[in-house]
Amino acid sequence: MIENQSASHGSINRGSIEAREVQLDIVGGFALNASIVSIMFCSQIAVNIGEFPVSVDFIGYLLFAAYLPLSGFATISTKTFLLLLIAAILACFRMLSPNSLTSWSSLSLLFVLYAPFCLRLQSRSGIEEVGKVIQAKFILVVCIIAVIADVQLVLVNLFRGTTYFSNIALVLPEEIRGAGNYAFVREGGGIIKANGFFLRESSTLSVMTAIALMLEFFSRRRRLVLCILIAGLLASVSGSGLLIVLFGFLLPTSVRQLPLFVLGLLFVFLVLIYGSEIPVLNLWLDRTSEFETPGSSGYARFVAPFQMLERNLGDGASTWLGAGAGTYLRTVAVLQLKYEINDPTWAKLIYEYGISGFFFFSIIFILRLYSSALRREVCAALFYAWMSAGSLLKPDFVFMTWILTLVSLPQNDRKTSVKRQIPVPDPSRAPYTAS
Asked: Which of 24, 178, 233, 413 could form a disulfide with 29 if both were Cys (CB 3.0 to 4.6 A apart)?
């Protein structure tokens, strides 16, 4: 997948030096391109095997993950493997208890999705260049989706009588259409939201553009690219991406950033109080009233899950080991409640796998993020996006996180990873161009 090339970069005082550059080979480049494209454009195209839809991005995830160890380009994290093994043993033990609502398919999907988190590209000199290539390709594809979303936003609001511009799932044949209940069309403030046409929901567009925006901001900071991503983020008319960006930027990564964190919280607090008087912000801030309105999106995502956990935390076994895989949404259906209940990761993990499962999978995700070459701000944003939304069993989000964290810097380089990601020119060195 990756190959080394020697290149001469001029002389420095005495003689010259030779650096080893790491590049993606043809197979690796194709696998990476196909994977990112499948996440953005093929998440709703599926091969339906019985009642289980196998989406194209899920297939790409498994093939890419299988290719790495088979080709010898991956290393296995012992810590992550042991954590997954313990979590699997506890989850399987809980499944032995009699409960008609449990699902072995849900349990299998969970561990199939997170098993590749044990794999990373082998650390070698110059491997961070591969990480930059991965980020650049991801940003490029998200920019394409953002442009599509901007055009879609105009079309869906001009031609409200047709659904052809709303979502690819509405025009796909049933044989290759992915299953799932998604908000294809949801109006906010009289405006129909954009979802990039190929993505499931407007919130998915919001999440993808927010992550790409942070990656671009901490790397090349191209104004045109930043404007495209911001336009795509706004076209979603969803607060998910805005919260992700705020969380990523405001969460302190050192003691010196605590004053900035406090000022940021104060600014957000003032915006929530007085921002509703600004017409442009009404589309987002007016939705804070949803926290008190059963049946609304905000209530379903942030309030109703607490009510679900209250039903389950009285029993000791359920508190520590959960009610069993797949029981969260099935219980919602059995209760026949009059309002919608979303399945954010934190609630689903605690309800189905208990406090122990919540602990193990949170540690697995955190280890994956913070041992990677990503900026700490981006890691915080990804963790918030995973924990706050229903991303636990979404192949597109899990696959995206796995790809972006494929590269891990050597242990002695992690302390200087932040400085390396924003290079400062050294006048004493000859010009250097990475291939």
From this structure: 24
